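User: Can you recover a sequence for this backbone? Please restate the input before giving your answer.

Assistant: Of course. Working from this structure:
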């Protein structure tokens, strides 16, 4: 990657990975296929899902009273994100690249099937199949985000709900190794994210900023799971709402980092 092209990506003017050739997408897919699992998640004895309170605040509380025929979890690992609403789902499909997570045939008491994704980003499902789709912290591992978002729209039923949350910061310089991160993951610039969502055809029911970094850092130091705790989730939401006008992409200074680092969308197919 030449310096001029990298500057376009790191500035947030273009989305790195969204303009790759099929062979480049294949290389990216192979690199990321087990990336999350290899960061420690495949060790289920020490694995703990840390986002239940956050998911409820951003999504599930707005879906109360709704029941769903079939849900699709994209990159959902063990499927923990769907446990709180599993009793309202008739069946669950998990689209997951890593074999490390395809362990159970049920989530809660709900029948669950694991399917591996296609390298191209094409979904192996018919159109209008799922009335609920979730994608939590996965799309920033995907190269061709625009194409995959259009596939999600195609597979979502009319009137269905799509819940997605992702980082909107660069996550550092991805040309070199970064501690605790996979090789290619990068956030999605907010302006580009909004455009991708609009061009895919989604209706935005809610857009919420979250992840003011000092809050989870301090919470961890005092032994609190920031996004599994109602109080810290509400505090994070309050601060991020106040700072929602500040969304720089590549953040290198302390002041630049005092802003929401992630966004959540509750989307619908009209």
């Amino acid at each position: 990657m030449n310096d001029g092209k990298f500057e376009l990506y790191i500035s947030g003017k273009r989305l790195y990975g969204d303009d790759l050739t099929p062979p480049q997408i294949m290389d990216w897919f192979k690199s990321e296929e087990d990336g999350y699992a290899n960061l420690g998640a495949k060790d289920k004895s020490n694995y703990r899902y840390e986002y239940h309170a956050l998911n409820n605040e951003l999504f599930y509380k707005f879906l109360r009273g709704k029941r769903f025929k079939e849900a699709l979890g994209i990159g959902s690992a063990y499927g923990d994100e769907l446990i709180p609403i599993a009793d309202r789902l008739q069946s669950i499909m998990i689209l997951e690249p890593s074999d490390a997570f395809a362990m159970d045939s049920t989530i809660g008491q709900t029948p669950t099937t694991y399917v591996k994704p296609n390298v191209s980003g094409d979904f192996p499902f018919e159109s209008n199949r799922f009335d609920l789709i979730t994608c939590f912290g996965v799309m920033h591992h995907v190269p061709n985000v625009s194409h995959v978002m259009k596939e999600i729209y195609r597979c979502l039923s009319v009137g269905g709900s799509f819940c997605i949350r992702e980082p909107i910061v660069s996550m550092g310089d991805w040309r070199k190794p970064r501690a605790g991160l996979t090789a290619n993951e990068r956030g999605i610039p907010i302006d580009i994210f909004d455009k991708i969502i609009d061009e895919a055809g989604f209706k935005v029911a809610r857009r919420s900023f979250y992840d003011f970094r000092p809050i989870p850092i301090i919470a961890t130091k005092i032994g609190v799971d920031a996004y599994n705790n109602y109080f810290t989730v509400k505090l994070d939401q309050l601060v991020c709402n106040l700072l929602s006008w500040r969304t720089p992409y590549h953040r290198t200074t302390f002041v630049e980092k005092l802003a929401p680092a992630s966004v959540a969308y509750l989307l619908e197919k009209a």
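That completes the design. The CA atoms of residues 192 and 205 lie 18 Å apart.
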